[in-house]
Predict the structure of MAP kinse-ERK kinase.
Amino acid sequence: MSKNKFNLKLPPGSIEQTNDHDNHTGTDTPQRKASTGATGSFGAMSLESLLKCIQELDMDDTQRRRMEIFLVQKQKIGELNADDFEKLGELGAGNGGVVNKERHKPSGLIMARKLIHLEVKPAVRNQIIRELKV
């Protein structure tokens, strides 16, 4: 039995292969700085400074353009909270959480939202939070 009960598939080109497999060191590369922001969160940096960081990254034009489009869209949506979503249905569930189909009320955008079941153990919770920040 497959966990993909609706047989959902990603469109072509949505996942790109990169040759940067061994660039996962603990140092702050431009990629790490751009993904976490200078202070560790996206909201603390301006759009202009993020676009400048993108120019420094080793990406081709297609990747750079897609990243710029994402950042502009992210700025339009702003911070997300639970009240901004309307649940349309459940897409799947597993040991780690539930994925729901939801509508973002302000924009009307339909998306998948994963709700992660956090264990009460502080060590496990802290590990999950650390992994989400990366």
